[in-house]
Predict the 3D structure of the following.
Amino acid sequence: MQPILLICLAAALGAAAGPALARACWVLSVPSGEPRRSRCEDCDAPPPALPRTRCAGCGRGLGPSVRWMSAAAAAACAGCAWRIGPHPALIAYLATALAAVVLAATDARVKRLPNAVVLPLYPVTLAALGAASLMDSHHGSLTRALIAMATLAGGFYLLALASPGALGLGDVKLVGVLGLLLGWLSWAAVATGVFLGFAVAAVAALGLVLTRRAGRKDTIPFGPYLLLGALLALLLQ
């Protein structure tokens, strides 16, 4: 398979998943401790079957814009295909790319990274990278990926304990998955991903303060910036 065809197929996968991702974000975008949404907030009508993303009763949009979700998923999947190529490990990166769109949108809306999305990424990623290491041990390192996962998750857990308002356990769980994916590539990718995540978050926080959309003591969701930093690190390696 030629790289351009693989990239196009990955982009098409992301675009096609857009409605389902937007719907998942609507279901999961509830404050911590509340049940998932099952009815429209305006008219209390049950949601229509997929792929519809508008309430059948009042026409309210169920979740973020499908157009933006599709575009983000298409770009993320295409980037992964361009960087990883036709290799079994690509499954892990595509699965995480699709989940990342839901996680970023949900965290931005309600400052929460749902376990229902984050935790399944661990067995999927481990299985895909494990199979990839058996088929082609020269493409990446499963050992390095596991060490990076443990190191990042442990480090972020300590940071969360030290500053619970800045980091949450959702960030700890997410960074473990990102450690697996970046660690598979190289230690440079791990370091770059973490650095860019913090750097982009700092720039965004400064921008919000300067535009008075947030105060100095306000917290911002860190998940979207972790994900963006990891994607940039992936593309830059």
About this structure: The chain has a mean pLDDT of 87. Residues 3-236 form one domain. The chain is about 70% helix and 0% strand. The chain has one domain: 3-236.
